[in-house]
Specification:
Layout (H helix, E strand, L loop, with lengths): L1 H55 L4 H62 L4 H41 L6
Helix pairs in contact: 1-2, 2-3
C-alpha cells in the first residue's frame, strides 16, 4: 500500500511545485508588463507636454511642418520601443514556460518508464508484450513532443530575428 501512495504523493507534490512555478512566471511577467505600461504612460504624458509647448512656439507653416515631423518620428520610436519591451517580456515568459514544459515532460517520461519497469518485474510472462507496447508508445510520444518543440523553437527564432531586424536603424537615402 505504501508503494501506491508514494508515487501518488510524488505526483501531487510535483503538480503543486509546477503550479507554483507557472503562477510565479505568470505573475512576474504580468508585473513586468505593468511596469512597462506605467513607464510608457508617464513618458506619453511628458511627451504630450513637450508637444504642447512645441506647438505653442510655432510661428510659421514651415516650422510647424518641421515640429510635426519630429514629433511623428518620436512617437514612432516610442511605440517601437514600447512594443519591443513588451515582446521581450513575452519572449522571456515563453522561454521559461517552454523550459518548464520540457522539465515536466522529461519527469513524466521517467516516471512512466520507471512504473513500466516495475510492472514488468511483477507481470506474468505475457506482460512483456504490454511493456514493449507501452515503451514504444512512450518513444513515439517523445519523438512527437521533440518535433513540436523544435518547430516552436524555430518559430520563436524567426520572430526573434524579425524583432531584432526591426531594431536595426534604417539608413536614409
Amino acid at each position: 500500500m505504501t508503494t501506491a501512495l508514494n508515487p501518488l504523493s510524488e505526483l501531487g507534490r510535483t503538480a503543486v511545485e509546477t503550479s507554483a512555478r507557472l503562477t510565479k512566471i505568470s505573475i512576474d511577467s504580468a508585473e513586468r508588463a505593468f511596469a512597462i505600461n506605467l513607464e510608457y504612460a508617464k513618458a506619453a504624458v511628458a511627451q504630450a507636454t513637450l508637444t504642447a509647448r512645441a506647438a505653442a512656439g510655432v510661428q510659421d507653416v514651415e516650422q510647424f511642418l518641421t515640429v510635426r515631423n519630429r514629433l511623428a518620428e518620436n512617437a514612432v520610436e516610442n511605440l517601437v520601443g514600447y512594443s519591443r519591451s513588451l515582446y521581450e517580456v513575452a519572449s522571456e515568459a515563453q522561454s521559461e514556460l517552454s523550459k518548464l514544459a520540457e522539465e515536466r515532460m522529461a519527469a513524466y517520461q521517467a516516471a512512466v518508464v520507471e512504473a513500466v519497469d516495475q510492472a514488468s518485474k511483477v507481470a506474468p510472462g505475457s506482460g512483456d508484450v504490454a511493456v514493449a507496447a507501452v515503451k514504444q508508445s512512450m518513444a513515439a510520444t517523445t519523438a512527437a513532443f521533440d518535433t513540436l518543440h523544435k518547430a516552436a523553437r524555430q518559430v520563436a527564432s524567426y520572430a526573434d530575428a524579425s524583432v531584432k531586424a526591426a531594431k536595426a536603424p534604417k539608413t536614409r537615402k
